[in-house]
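WARN retry 2 of 3 for item q-0093 after timeout on previous attempt; input resubmitted unchanged.
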Amino acid sequence: MKKTMLLSIITSIIFVFLAVNFFSNEAMAAPQTLTILGAQGTPGQTDPYTQFSQDNGQTWHQAYLYGSHPWGLIPGTNSWINCGPSGTDYCINQTVLYRIRFNVPEGSINPQMTFDVNADNYATVSLNGTYVAKVVGGPNRTGINASVNSKVHTGMNEIRLLLTDEGGWAGLNYKITLNVDAPTPPTLITDYIAPTTIDNAPANWVNQDVTVNLTATDNANGSGVAATYYSLDNGVQQTGTKVSVTGEGQHPLTYWSVDKAGNVESKHMVTIKIDKTAPTTTDNAPTNWVNTDVTVNLTASDSGSGVAATNYTVDGGVQQTGNTVVLTTEGVHTLVYWSVDNAGNIEAHHTATIKIDKTAPLSVSSVNPTTPTGSNGWYTSDVTLSLSATDNLSGLMKTVYQVSNGVWTTYSGSIPAFSDGVYKINYGSTDNAGNVEQIKTVEFKIDKTAPTLSVQLDKPIVAPLDDEKMAVIHATLNASDATSGVASVILTSITSNKIVKDQGEEYPKKVDFLAALGTSATTFSVRAEEGYIYTIKYTITDNAGNKSIAVSTVSVIEPKEKKDGHKGNPEGNKGDSPKGNDSSKKVE
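OK item q-0093 returned
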């Protein structure tokens, strides 16, 4: 075997620790001895007292026994110790940490320890974390004796040997003796199994304070649980088995236990999640009347455990779950909604009112008088127009009207009076949901003004004619009507200022005029007898039925320059009188 140092070295180290007053119960103490052999057992098996670590003490494993080594055995042992069942196949050219632990009873005093160590090749020895000595292999079998003031204490004690190998063989062989005055003998620790701790923390979110119980147990043959430790919210380490968690949020709880043999359990971590605040839900429901289908979006948020569900009812119906509510029917709808979070917090109910009106209002017009007062559909009297409208849901917002393509005006209860003319009134209403009624129309015609007529006679004055002959008169008619237009101009009557009585067959009544009364005649004849004044009446009628009468006169007058001649027969002239309807009339 090739080594950088002499391989066969047996180093004996004797440590003597004196305690002036190691523990104050001297009266009960008696000499006690603990001998630890590393190793005495069956090669290939594990040593019950020695553990090794290859990660600087993070994890530990039972050390192995193998039967021989070129450097021999310390008296009382029959094996070497290694991290595997062989000294030539395991831990070669490695640094391995070994440990041995023992308990010293309460009331112990005057401890003395003896170490005999064979190490291949180097070993650094420490007791309860305090450096004791270094074993170095060499040709002179160098030995180091050292004394440390009372590092042995009651309870668990730990010896560590940090071994470094340089090839060939590996491992160590030791015998440790402890002499102490104690009430009972010191004992080796053979419990290398850490305790097990469990918790009753809720796995899910909760909405109340939580008390977590930590329950620790040690294995059946173990040393028993010494203490349970925990840290809440990454805070300071505390000791105990009950942890009170009160604040909202996620609280990491780290915990572990240690048994009386000093075995430290791997740390556990659990998160306690507390949310005492209900979620918040909002809606985008319209506040006013609308005239279309409505989709209400329910938006829920929860800063703690998160939203589990959003629930709602429509018009007192069955409860439903979802974030979208579609409303299509007309009417006033009541939407009640709320959310629940993952901790079970239930939000207070919210209520939204959704008002849908898809139907336009209904407008009606009323014309007074209800039927035309004139002819041909014309009104010859004042006309009033009133509008009314109804809406069964959202209500009427406004009614507007337009007179004969003029500006649109909001109806306020009355429409200004109408003068003569032809009217087309458009009107319609809008409700509070924005529904606009289709435009309606009412039409009427007003002509309250009579037509005008002027009559010009070509001979308003005629001279008497012999034998009272008929004088032909021509009339020129000027008729007008600004609105409905002229319907007719009729020669209505011709009358005279004389009343002639019928004197019988001898003196029949004379004819005063010849005219087509009741027609639109513009030519007629009157008897040219002196002193007669004829009144001619034309009646003009417009298309609305309005009438007016134009009156003109024809006077029979003897010219002043003509001397008075034949004055006629007072009983009547039987000469050349016109034939026809003439008859002798007595002028009264």
